Amino acid sequence: MRSKAIDFLDIDEMTLYRGKPIKISTHLTLKQPTLDDICDIGEKQYFAEIGKICATPSDYKSELYDGFNLWWDEVDDFDFFTLIYKSIDSDILSLLFEENINLQGMVLVKDNTSQDIKLIDTNTQLIIDRFVYEIIVNYIRKIHRLKKHEEKGGNTTTKRFMVDEDRDNKKYARKEHQKAQSTLLPIVSALTNHANFKYSYSTVWSLPIYVLMDAADRINAINDYENIMTGYYSGCVDLKKISNKSVLNWMRNL
Predict the structure, then answer these.
(1) For the chain, which end, N or C, has fewer CB atoms within 10 Å of the first or last residue's CB respectively?
(2) What distance in Å separates the CA atoms of residue 193 and residue 209, rounded to the nearest whole number?
(3) pLDDT digits (tens, 9 = 90+) for 6-17
């Protein structure tokens, strides 16, 4: 049974900022990892699995075509998830859920009434249907400031070109994988050396990931505002010529 506390897909941002667990069903509670949690499990592994959970068919154009003879833009997000869910690392799930989630042990079933596909853990009675999946993915994208990747193909020729391009890009990405640099280190280094950031090198590790990412965006907003106002008072900036007036409000929603 779904929790009455959350019957919508757009999770309140104040709830995310508090960093407390969010119960979305009887057997499923979302939580945020801290920077410490991510470092302990390994940043590269963590973001690889996060990318897998939040992936869309657009991220797997060539795999869907080569393995299933499917065009990515004809595959539903949840249906795609049912193809890859068993490959997701359970250790990473322990950072995102209060419960011990065993995706590898879940089975696909079809609801006889609605004909909808669901994932069910017969031991715990956990159910991940299309609605629950969308909440989970929306939550994970929000706390990491990730954007949903969606691309549409045109005619068959265009789609073949996009699949070939995706295949080539992935070959290059595999070669460059070992050279990949940290995603979080530049953010943590910049924030802990910035006068407007109120956490230190010693205390930053306990921050929930959403709070850390929000701090980076907020400080950028403050810097933009201060730079514009400095230019304005020195006569170098005409505020009337700024098309995006939201930059003049550093307390705006990000």
Answers:
(1) N
(2) 18
(3) 444 567 888 899
